């Protein structure tokens, strides 16, 4: 048992001058801590000769937290203010600032830090140290930089209590909030580890989180992945055979045909940590969440930050990236169509190519294969075409889509998104064939071995079977909830339901993962069109493809019968029983059906409910919503709206995922709006829609793509896996 220690309240001590205040967060008396920590730390050599370097804004508590961490580690503690700057200058920090002024102070501060030589110590930086690049490079060479990430609003309150109205670097006409926000870019640049500090966190609690974060940093072997079909006894425990994030990004599909999942599950954020993100931007939320899910040994935090900033930058037409819009009553729309190709697939496929390029070895070329029911094709082609030129030379992508199973605009968009390293092939079959064929190609070791030996090229996947495709989708479900809190629609902790148009089960699985990570989602509503195999499954526990024929609908992205990511969810509710999952999917493959045990069905139904929508009801919903609100739903969102109306009890808000822009499905929208004349040319259809001054406007990126590539063609092939393989080989020969 840990000893119970009573602490005095946290006390703020300030040294005031007219131009500056040096901030120290201190406890009123020494901090006691469990002997268990000391024995663990000494036996595991947490530090070695490395330093733990605490970084953060003024008022973050770096000094006090540093002393507690140093006490726990039984190592020297260096406070840069007291032990470096004032010792070097023989005057107080505030006196130095008055003497030399803001700009020169930063240079003098950096020079003093460059003289610091330490090892095996805890170092508490000043709030302005990270603004000096050379000194930060110096201290970072022999240390782990831990960013104490305290919400700006909390820092502002602390500084107000201490009567601080100016900090180093704050010029005339610049507000305190603005300078704090400005400094964040430097903290993001230098940190190795982030510790989220909720507003009411004590210094002791923050110190514990620092130690946990350092421990995680040094133990990447704890964050391994397994196949959904691996037996418990067969899970890879040997270090040499363990799969890490970089491995699963590269490999895509597990060798046994299963899908990779984190062996120890996803991390859970505390309520306080989630609340610290309420006022954060989408990019800031994404970085925090993905840092927790991707070990820095796979992608360092600063590199991940650069990737996220690139992915969710000027290529999105809305600065909020994934805004939440009130529709009617208790219904809110999560708009996921502001990316370059106008669908929710952009959220994963603007970031996944950069993650992939970073993770894969540079000694080999890679061909990324993807099967698409419409939206994924253009998103993956666009995403991989945005790689750096050097990466495009070693990474190509090929998309297979059902030639007659996507909208004309979707097809035109995929054709228009083709680049030198990105090709699209129409297949004379449906999506299920395309997806099954790609899985067969991946598991054909003779063929993949031939490509590697003959051409030095490996295959990889960009469908949501790849973990790096699924992971970024968790962010927007969490972000939508936080936006409702930020807009005072709900208080944090109040439940919401989500309703998601569902085909391959990836988007709704991301919402279920967000719930696991601590977002208070009550029910996930699975909305299907007339291909309602998932509705039947959720209601009965029977997944039955016998006698089912794929029905082409006006919501083609969910015209799917075999839902790949359902396998990951079954593995989750089966408590990681890969042997059971393997049996179920072998039965589905061989007999066309399987039945869940009653206990598993009950677990599933605690999280998920399901319904479906006819074509007639889908188009009627588009017309009704436009007539009453002026807003145009796309066909997939209309499916979700219809199902939400039927199944949700209106006792809490419901967030409906608006997964695509209506512009992609112009003929169906024009029919729904009862516009008599529908021209065949996709560009003409968009111009016609635009003439109605719709809300939201016609998607500019889609319009520009169609204008540029109106007359381009594409290749079409037969529904034969060997024919697909010949197209793969032809692209490899021509590109690499």
UniProtKB/TrEMBL annotation:
Its cofactor is pyridoxal 5'-phosphate. SUPFAM superfamilies: P-loop containing nucleoside triphosphate hydrolases (SSF52540), Tryptophan synthase beta subunit-like PLP-dependent enzymes (SSF53686). This is Threonine synthase-like 1. Pathway: Amino-acid biosynthesis. Residues 238-312 form the Threonine synthase N-terminal domain. The keyword Repeat does not apply. Belongs to the threonine synthase family. GO terms for biological process: amino acid biosynthetic process. The modification N6-(pyridoxal phosphate)lysine is found at residue 345. InterPro entries: P-loop_NTPase, Ser/Thr_deHydtase_PyrdxlP-BS, Shikimate/glucono_kinase, Shikimate_kinase/TSH1, Thr_synth_N, Thr_synth_N_sf, Thr_synthase-like, TrpB-like_PALP_sf. It comes from the Eukaryota. GO terms for cellular component: cytoplasm. Transmembrane segments: none annotated. CDD domains: SK, Thr-synth_2. One of its GO terms (molecular function) is pyridoxal phosphate binding. It comes from Tinamus guttatus. The keyword Amino-acid biosynthesis applies. Keywords: Amino-acid biosynthesis, Pyridoxal phosphate.
């Amino acid at each position: 048992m840990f000893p119970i220690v009573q602490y005095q309240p946290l006390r703020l001590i300030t040294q005031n001058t007219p131009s500056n205040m040096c901030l120290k967060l201190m406890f009123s008396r020494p901090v006691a801590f469990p002997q268990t920590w000391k024995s663990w730390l000494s036996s595991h050599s947490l530090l070695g000769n490395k330093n733990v370097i605490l970084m953060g804004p003024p008022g973050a508590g770096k000094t006090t937290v540093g002393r507690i961490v140093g006490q726990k580690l039984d190592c020297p503690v260096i406070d840069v203010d007291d032990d470096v700057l004032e010792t070097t200058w023989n005057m107080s920090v505030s006196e130095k600032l008055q003497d030399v002024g803001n700009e020169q102070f930063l240079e003098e501060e950096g020079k003093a830090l460059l003289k610091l030589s330490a090892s095996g110590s805890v170092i508490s930086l000043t709030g302005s140290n990270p603004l000096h690049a050379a000194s930060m490079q110096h201290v970072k060479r022999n240390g782990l930089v831990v960013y104490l990430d305290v919400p700006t609003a909390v820092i502002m309150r602390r500084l107000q209590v201490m009567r601080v109205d100016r900090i180093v670097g704050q010029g005339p006409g610049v507000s305190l909030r603005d300078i704090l926000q400005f400094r964040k870019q430097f903290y993001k640049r230098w940190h190795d580890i982030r510790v989220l500090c909720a507003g009411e966190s004590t210094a002791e609690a923050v110190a514990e989180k620092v130690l946990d974060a350092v421990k995680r940093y040094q133990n990447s072997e704890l964050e391994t992945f397994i196949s959904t079909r691996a037996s418990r006894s067969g899970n890879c425990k040997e270090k040499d055979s363990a799969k890490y994030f970089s491995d699963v990004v590269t490999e895509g599909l597990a060798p046994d045909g299963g899908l990779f999942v984190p062996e120890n599950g996803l991390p859970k954020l505390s309520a306080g940590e989630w609340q610290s993100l309420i006022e954060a931007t989408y990019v800031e939320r994404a970085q925090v969440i993905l840092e927790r899910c991707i070990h820095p040994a796979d992608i360092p935090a600063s590199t991940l930050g650069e990737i996220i900033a690139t992915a969710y930058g000027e290529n999105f037409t809305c600065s909020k990236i994934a805004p939440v819009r009130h529709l009617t009553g208790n219904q809110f729309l999560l708009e996921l169509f502001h990316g370059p190709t106008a669908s929710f697939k952009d959220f994963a496929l603007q970031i996944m190519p950069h993650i992939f390029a970073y993770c894969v070895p540079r000694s080999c070329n890679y061909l990324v294969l993807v099967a698409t029911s419409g939206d994924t094709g253009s998103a993956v082609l666009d995403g991989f075409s945005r790689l750096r030129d050097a990466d495009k030379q070693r990474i190509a992508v090929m998309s297979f889509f059902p030639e007659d199973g996507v909208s004309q605009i979707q097809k035109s968009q995929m054709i228009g998104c083709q680049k030198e390293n990105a090709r699209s092939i129409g297949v004379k079959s449906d999506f299920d064939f395309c997806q099954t064929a790609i899985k067969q190609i991946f598991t054909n070791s003779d063929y993949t071995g031939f490509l590697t030996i003959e051409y030095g090229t490996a295959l990889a996947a960009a469908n949501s079977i790849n973990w790096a495709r699924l992971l970024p989708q968790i962010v927007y479900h969490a972000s939508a909830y936080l936006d409702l809190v930020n807009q005072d629609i709900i208080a944090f902790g109040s439940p919401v339901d989500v309703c998601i148009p569902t085909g391959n089960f990836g988007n709704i699985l991301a919402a279920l993962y967000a719930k696991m990570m601590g977002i208070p989602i009550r029910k996930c509503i699975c909305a299907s069109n007339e291909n309602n195999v998932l509705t039947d499954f959720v209601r009965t526990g029977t997944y039955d493809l016998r006698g089912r024929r794929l029905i082409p609908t006006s919501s083609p992205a969910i015209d799917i019968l075999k839902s790949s990511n359902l396998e990951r969810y079954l593995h989750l509710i089966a408590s990681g029983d890969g042997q059971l999952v393997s049996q179920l999917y072998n039965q589905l493959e061989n007999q066309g059906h399987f039945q869940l045990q009653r206990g598993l069905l009950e677990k599933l139904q605690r999280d998920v409910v399901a319904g479906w929508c006819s074509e007639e009801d889908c188009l009627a919903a588009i017309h009704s919503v436009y007539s009453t609100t002026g807003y145009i739903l796309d066909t997939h969102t209309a499916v979700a709206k219809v199902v939400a109306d039927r199944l949700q009890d209106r006792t809490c808000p419901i967030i409906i995922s608006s997964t695509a822009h209506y512009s992609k499905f112009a003929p169906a929208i024009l029919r729904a709006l009862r516009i008599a004349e529908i021209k065949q040319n996709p560009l003409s259809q968009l111009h016609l829609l635009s003439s109605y001054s719709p809300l939201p406007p016609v998607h500019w990126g889609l319009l520009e793509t169609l204008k540029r590539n109106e007359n381009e063609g594409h290749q079409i092939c037969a529904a034969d896996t060997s024919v697909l393989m010949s197209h793969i080989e032809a692209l490899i020969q021509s590109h690499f």
